[in-house]
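Researcher: Structure prediction, please.
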Amino acid sequence: MTDSINEAPVEPGAAPMNVAAVDLGATGGWFGHPRQLKRLFTTEMWERFGYYGMRAILTLYLANHFLFSDTTTAGLYGGFTALVYLTPLIGGLIADNYLGSKRSVKFGALMMSLGYFILCFSGTGESAKPYATIDGQKYEIVVQGTGEDATKSVNIDGQALVIKGNEDKSVSLIAADGKEARKFEEGTFKSDGERSSFFVLMLLLGLSTVTIGNGFFKPNISTIVGSLYEDGDRRRDAGFTIFYMGINLGSLISQFFCPILAQTVGFWAGFGLAAVGMACSWLLFQFDGGRLKGYGERPENADAGKDWYIYGGALATIPLFWFLFSNLMNYVKPAEGTGIVGYVLGLPIMGKALFLTFLFGVPLILLWSWFKGSKKEFQMMVAAMVLIVFNVVFWTLFEQAGSSLTLFAERNTVLEIGWTAPLFAMFRDFAFSYYLVAAGLAFGLAWLSFWFFANGEEAATRRSMGIGFGVVGLLSFAGLVYIKSGLIEQPVYLMPAGQTQIFNALFIVLLAPIFSMIWGALARRGLEPSIPIKFAIALMGVGAGFLFLVWGANFAGSEFKVGMAWLAGLYLIHSIAELCISPVGLSMITKLSIARIVGMMMGVWFLSISVAQYFAGMVAQVASVETVGGQVTNLKVSLDTYIGVFTTIGEVSIGIGVLLLLFSFPLKYLMHGVK
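Model: Predicted structure follows.
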């Protein structure tokens, strides 16, 4: 990334969006850019469609379908996202030295598509049955209903006893006459899920396959985009902007539709849609019609005969990733009082590896800089490392979106969209109105897509693309008709919990141009904040977002649920914070690193993001709530637990942000004028 005043982020570690540089009215090629950019844009759009669609429902899938505890769910999610940002380091090296970017992207797309289909398959059967262990004996738990309306009961000696969570975190078994038959003190009532070993195997196999594919895909498609432009070509930044618009477009669409399908049809359908999107990405790249010939080819001195050894070696690592995920799944928290050493030693293998690599890697690089670099270079490296450490803190807290905040949305957030009541009533009473709206939406988007992608094409190609997008419109309309009953059978639109993650993408798109203008205005006046100050603002912002949600909890109703506006407000504040840190990260690395190890420092940057993703899962584990059959036993306890954790996160984050703000002055000295 660069810290240009016109740039905005789309995801951690991604190239920024230079919104002001995009000229959709340009002529020649594709909006004034090489036609190959269109193919890369579309490929990336469908790849992010698959990834963000899968990620939107993954936490709920683990907690509600497989009945994993909140601790296990957060651990698996954090471990998976950590590997997503770690494996590109290896995939990039393999592409640079052996396969080339194009072959790496093809293989990665194929692996990711396969992984999503495996996840789709793992969601087709009955993966887990809830049970309780009482006096050393297992009893099946019967769950009826969902959410706060769900009743959970166990059959003991022919008597159905309803499980009731109490505000003191104890659990009571209530008889049919309403009397308490038995009471278990906090932590003594044990419930779990009897999970199908086959479907668990499929789950871990799917996550492993996606992880491997991501390592090959993620770093290399951006490399090809850069190769479309000669050195000094002023269109490069705008080209990357258009390319990364594909990320926003893909994520917005998938985060809307995948959770809907998961809720109305089943988790398998949500993963299935993600798999279809990823398959489209692979098809576009595999059958490119020669459009990408000469781009992303293998290095001249690379041996083509080693390709299948590399593919086979990648497949051979599946058991390794499966083992890492299994280790995360079976993780048990260390006992109280074990201390920091005992805590570190008790971490899963992945946690130990990431923690120790980062802990020893940073000082060793600084030690090397002391001996090999000049005094100025060493000081700049110190500044870079300090900012990298603070970057870990930011993304650790920010990435609660996919774990604890998603579970909070499901359990303690009012997800009904009230204004949809008359709209849904009209759809139910006048079915034709729904079909009319669905047709307008499907075919309107198809026409818009045709206008966007057909730019600069010959007449014959435009006709073919028109037919193609017409078919897409028909299929989209058919899909909307298919989910009609499940979508509008409720009085109002009930937003799926996973869909709340869409707020961040929406706010980034809306706010990026505004921030471009703000930074530009400040720069012209010589008032643009320095890199450390932007980092500090981001840290204080992410803390302020959590405290805003905590404030909203004071207005929770008798059902112990917070209005959606408070959750949306958190994402708004977090998006503002993201815009203050993400655009400058990679640029900071290139400016402050010693030239001969800038590649290694890029690796350290991505390692920091990977560590942050893992730590995010650990933080989410602290917010774990006792569940029975995937449902919380007491919504007040759930709300109090989340709010307690979010309060701590908010206060700590603001405190660390203030600390960095104080450090910004000596850091500015160490940076020697770098802005």
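Model: The chain has four domains: 33-127+196-331, 129-195, 350-412+514-675, 428-485.
Researcher: Thanks, that helps.
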